[in-house]
C-alpha cells in the first residue's frame, strides 16, 4: 500500500526547473522563431500637425521674449537720458554752474587763482589725456576713465583717432558697449545743455558744436546700417539742441506767421523744420525709422503748440511757453494746458479764430488714447485745411 502511494506521489510531483526550461525552450523554438532585440517607443509620436503647432508657439514665445528685451533696453536708454535731463536748466546751472563759468574757473586756476569745485565729481588728470588712451578705455569698458575725460577734457570726445570718432567707434563694437554709447551721447547732451545763450556766438563754442554735429551725423548714419538703431532719436534730439534756443524762437516765429494765414499748412511746415536736421541717409529710409518718426512728430507738435500759444500771448500780453520741455513727451502740452486754465479770462479777449486754434490744440494734442503721430495727424487735419 505504501509503495503504491509513493509511486503515485512521484508520478504527481512537478518536473524539475531544468526539465521545465528545456521543455519550454524546445516548445518556444518549435512554435516561434527568436526575434532580434529592437528598441520600441512606449508612446507613439505626436502627429506632424501637432509638432508644427508647437514649433510655431515656441517661435512666437521667443519672438515675444526678444521684443520685450528690446523694449526694456529702450526704456533703460530713455530712463538714463531722462535722468540726465530731468532737472530744469535753471536748477542745473544753480547746482553745477554753467560751461562758461567752468571754463573761466579753470583759467583762473591755471593762473594761480583760488581753486573752486570741479566740473563733475571725477578726478582730474596729471597730464592731458591722449586720444589713444580714450580708445583703450572704450575697448576695456572703462567707464570711470571716460567720465574723467568727459569732465576734464571734453574736446577729446569729439576728436577723430584714425578714421572714426569715439561715439562711432563705441557703437561699432557691439551691443555690449551700448552703455558706453549712452554715456558719450549723454556727455554731448550735457555740454549743450549747460551753454549760456551768449556762448553760441563765441568762436570756441562754434568750433566745438561743429565737431559735435559731425559726430552725431556720422553716428546717425552708422546706426541706420547696424542692428541696434535704438539711439537714433537721442542723436537727433541732441543735434537739434546744439542749435540752441535761437532755433526754437525762429521756428515758433515763422509758424506764428503761418497760423495767421487760414490757407497755410503750419503743421506740415513744423514737421519739415524738424526733418531738416535728419541726415540725407536718414531721410532716404523708406517709411522712416519708428523711433525717429516718433521724435519728429513730438518735436513738430511741440512747435505747433508753442506757436499757437505765442500767437495768442502776443495779443493779450502773456509770456511765451518755456523751451526746456521741447520734444519731451507731453511736457510742453501740459504747460500749455495749465497756462490756458490759468488765463481763461484773458484768453477771451483774443481773436476768435486764434481761440479756435488753441481749442483745436488742446482737444487733439493731448489725446493720450493715441500715439504722438496720431495726435499730430489730428491737429493737422484741422489746422492744415483751407478755410
TrEMBL record:
Disordered as annotated region, ranges: 1-62
Composition skew (Pro residues), residue ranges: 34-47
Domain of life assignment: Eukaryota
Low complexity bias spans: 23-33
Name of this protein: Uncharacterized protein
Lineage per the UniProt record: Eukaryota, Fungi, Dikarya, Basidiomycota, Agaricomycotina
Amino acid at each position: 500500500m505504501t509503495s503504491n502511494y509513493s509511486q503515485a506521489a512521484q508520478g504527481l510531483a512537478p518536473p524539475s526547473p531544468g526539465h521545465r526550461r528545456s521543455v519550454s525552450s524546445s516548445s518556444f523554438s518549435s512554435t516561434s522563431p527568436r526575434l532580434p532585440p529592437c528598441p520600441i517607443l512606449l508612446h507613439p509620436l505626436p502627429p506632424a500637425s501637432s509638432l508644427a503647432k508647437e514649433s510655431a508657439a515656441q517661435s512666437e514665445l521667443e519672438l515675444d521674449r526678444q521684443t520685450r528685451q528690446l523694449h526694456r533696453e529702450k526704456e533703460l536708454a530713455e530712463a538714463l537720458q531722462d535722468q540726465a535731463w530731468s532737472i530744469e536748466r535753471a536748477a542745473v546751472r544753480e547746482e553745477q554752474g554753467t560751461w562758461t563759468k567752468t571754463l573761466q574757473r579753470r583759467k583762473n586756476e591755471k593762473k594761480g587763482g583760488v581753486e573752486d569745485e570741479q566740473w563733475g565729481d571725477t578726478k582730474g588728470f596729471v597730464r592731458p589725456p591722449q586720444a589713444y588712451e580714450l580708445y583703450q578705455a572704450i575697448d576695456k569698458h572703462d567707464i570711470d576713465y571716460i567720465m574723467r575725460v568727459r569732465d576734464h577734457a571734453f574736446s577729446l570726445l569729439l576728436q577723430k583717432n584714425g578714421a572714426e570718432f569715439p561715439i562711432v567707434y563705441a557703437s561699432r563694437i557691439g551691443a555690449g558697449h551700448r552703455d558706453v554709447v549712452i554715456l558719450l551721447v549723454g556727455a554731448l547732451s550735457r555740454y549743450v545743455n549747460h551753454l549760456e545763450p551768449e556762448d553760441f556766438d563765441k568762436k570756441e563754442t562754434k568750433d566745438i558744436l561743429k565737431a559735435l554735429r559731425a559726430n552725431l551725423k556720422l553716428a546717425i548714419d552708422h546706426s541706420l546700417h547696424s542692428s541696434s538703431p535704438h539711439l537714433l532719436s537721442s542723436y537727433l534730439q541732441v543735434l537739434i539742441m546744439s542749435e540752441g534756443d535761437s532755433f526754437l524762437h525762429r521756428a515758433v516765429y515763422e509758424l506764428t506767421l503761418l497760423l495767421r494765414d487760414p490757407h497755410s499748412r503750419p503743421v506740415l511746415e513744423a514737421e519739415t523744420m524738424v526733418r531738416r536736421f535728419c541726415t540725407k541717409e536718414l531721410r532716404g529710409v523708406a517709411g522712416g525709422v519708428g523711433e525717429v518718426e516718433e521724435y519728429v512728430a513730438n518735436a513738430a507738435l511741440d512747435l505747433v503748440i508753442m506757436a499757437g500759444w505765442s500767437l495768442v500771448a502776443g495779443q493779450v500780453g502773456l509770456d511765451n511757453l518755456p523751451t526746456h520741455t521741447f520734444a519731451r513727451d507731453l511736457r510742453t502740452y501740459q504747460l500749455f494746458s495749465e497756462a490756458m486754465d490759468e488765463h481763461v479770462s484773458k484768453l477771451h479777449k483774443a481773436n476768435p479764430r486764434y481761440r479756435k486754434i488753441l481749442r483745436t490744440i488742446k482737444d487733439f494734442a493731448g489725446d493720450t488714447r493715441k500715439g504722438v503721430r496720431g495726435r499730430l495727424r489730428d491737429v493737422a487735419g484741422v489746422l492744415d485745411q483751407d478755410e
